Amino acid sequence: MKKKKRDNGFPTIAPGIDDDEELNEKATKEEIARGDYTKVVALSFDEVDPAT
Predict the structure, then answer these.
(1) Residues contacting 3, CB < 8 A, separation 6+
(2) Which intervals of the chain are annotated as region Disordered (predicted)?
(3) Using CA atoms, how far apart are residues 38 and 32, in angstroms rounded to an integer?
(4) Residue range 1-48, pLDDT digits in tens
(5) Exposure string over 17-29, b if 16+ CB within 10 A, otherwise e
(6) Whole-model pTM above 0.90?
(7) How many Cα atoms within 13 Å fall on the side-chain side of residue 44?
(8) What's the maximum distance between 2 C-alpha atoms anywhere in the chain?
């Protein structure tokens, strides 16, 4: 099965989606078998004041 590429190359998200709940939901085995899933990576910036 070929994977479809997005035309613009930018990530998209549906309007009104609950980011925390929806993006952390695991894909089912069936979705993975069909290639109907997206790898999600979360980055967090933890700033620490070196003066303290």
Answers:
(1) 35
(2) 1-23
(3) 9
(4) 566 655 666 766 666 666 677 777 888 999 999 998 888 787 888 887
(5) eeeeeeeeeeeee
(6) no
(7) 2
(8) 55
| Residue owning tokens 């939901």 | 25
Which residues fall within 8 angstroms of residue 19, CB to CB, at 6 or more apart? 13
Please report the DSSP string for 4-52 in residue order.
PPPSS------TT--HHHHHTPPPPHHHHHHT--------------TT-
Cα-to-chain-centroid distance, residue 2 = 20
For position 29, what pLDDT does the model report? 94
Query: Distance between CA atoms of 25 and 17, rounded to whole angstroms?
Result: 12
Q: DSSP letter for 1, please.
A: -
- Residue 25's identity, in one-letter code, is E
